[in-house]
Amino acid sequence: MKLLIVDGTNLLCQMFFGMPARITGKDGRLIHGTLGFVGALIRMIKMTVPTHVVVLFDGEHDNPRTELSAEYKANRPVLVDVPEEENPFSQLPDIYNALDNMGISHCEIDIYEADDAVASYAFTYGSDAEIIIASLDSDFFQLIDDHVSVLRYRGDKTIIFDSLTIQDKFGIKPDQYADFKSLTGDNSDNIKGADKIGPKTAAALLQQFGSLEEIFEKSDEIGKPSIRESVKLHAERLINNYRLIKLDSRATLPYALDELVYTYNGITTREILERIGLR
User: Fold this and answer.
1) pLDDT: is 48 or 112 the higher one?
2) In the predicted model, what is the mean pLDDT of the chain?
3) Cα 275 from Cα 271, distance rounded (Å)
4) The domain 2-167+247-275 is classified under which CATH number: 3.40.50.1010, 3.30.460.20, 1.25.40.180, 3.40.50.620?
5) DSSP per position, 93-106
6) What is the mean pLDDT of residues 225-235?
7) pLDDT of residue 218 exceeding 80
8) Which CATH number fits domain 172-245: 3.40.50.2300, 3.40.630.30, 1.10.150.20, 1.20.1340.10?
9) Of all helices (H) and strands (E), which one includes residue 31?
10) What DSSP string runs through 44-78?
11) What's the predicted TM-score (pTM) here?
12) At residue 69, does pLDDT exceed 60?
């Protein structure tokens, strides 16, 4: 079995802002986000040949992680009053219609983020199926193991990240990625790391100590005084970062694995758009 899990919100934003914005349907409405989303999804399906597929979207609700940090994702634009042509979510109804037409299960995640539901699938079915997570969100790197990989869609430059890719790129193991990102911070999520600790220093610390917890316990053994002091000074922030970044199986699965069976039938993007009345 091979389960393809698509981070729908991530893919929508990637396509909406990456495609030519003046592509319109036969009724004059903008469809560039939908066109890009469906086209990318079909290409990913052809690349991976899954037996099961699900597409997960973030729901419209308060983010529980803001209880840990009010700054979490506070740098993201608020789209409530944005004109429709500038709002990627204005094309969600068409995308949902397209997914229904393709027979692909999809939903918005309640209470938690879509990331949490993706993680729940990885933890629940990782020993029973090969799992491919399609997203540009690097948080998913922490889930990679012998049965879980992350597909970063970039057309012909698409890369599938596995344990060796993470080791080569960051100098750490996938299960150290949450520790790594806690130390360095993440500008995309408005998470600030420790001063003077960039990717190379964070990797070196994890190679020496193994985990963020061990870094704290053995901080007096950190050789460089400025790094040692930074770890001690920002310990509380780093612990909170880890709570924000670490993924687990807390989210309820919206579908059981046997509800996600899918076989690609050769349908094209144009045919799907014609079926849902956009072309």
Assistant:
1) 48
2) 92
3) 6
4) 3.40.50.1010
5) HHHHHHHHHHT-EE
6) 95
7) yes
8) 1.10.150.20
9) none
10) HHHHH--SEEEEEEE-SS--GGGGT-TTTTTTSPP
11) 0.93
12) no
